[in-house]
Amino acid sequence: MTARGSIAALMTCMAAAAAASPAVADSVPVSVPLDAVKTTLGVPTPQVGTAVPMPVVGAPEAPVLHKGDMLPTPLLPAVPVATDLGLTKVTSPVPNLLGSKETDGEGSLESPASTLLTRTPGAVLGSPLTMPDGSNYGIPNLTAPKLGVVAPELMGAPSALLGLR
Question: Do the Cβ atoms of 43 and 92 come closer than 8 Å?
Fold first, then answer.
């Protein structure tokens, strides 16, 4: 084989691998199996279906170096994490709702899909030394060290619907 043929074969394999890569899912649907309870106890069981969220970690914010500070701010940056809370539905038979078999119904609790955004906590640390001081022959002065915590954030609007049929 020639060098050109080897490179062409390598490029073809790389293109095929890139085309075959799976798409990233926002959440994985899950159905909770409760059939064994129905078989064992002989009572109607609820049906539970939900989705397991797949968190996606974003890029941390870059530390910024301010004039006069020796350490960047924030020292430990906050990292954003986003995920989609999938559709969750729980249905359960409600027998003898009003005391007679004709009033049998079904209760349901449904939580529509929603997006949840979070940010991890960060840390800010002040240097115990100042920048070099010209009036002190270039020797830095001592200062009280400062420590701060950037509060974590949680943003989202999950909701739920309760129904009876």
Answer: no
Residues facing residue 115 across a β-bridge:
84
pLDDT, one tens digit per residue, over 40-99 is 888 788 888 888 888 888 888 888 888 877 778 888 888 999 888 888 888 888 777 676
Read off the tokens for 127: 């240097």
Please give the Cα distance from 86 to 31 (Å, whole number).
Answer: 12
Element (H, E) at 148: strand 147-150
**105 neighbors 164 (Cβ within 8 angstroms):** yes
Are 159 and 111 in contact by the 8 Å Cβ rule? The answer is: yes
Q: What is the DSSP string of 69-81?
A: -SS-BSSB---EE
Q: Structure tokens of 112?
A: 């529509």
The answer to whether 114 and 136 have CB atoms below 8 angstroms apart is: no
Residue 139 DSSP class: B
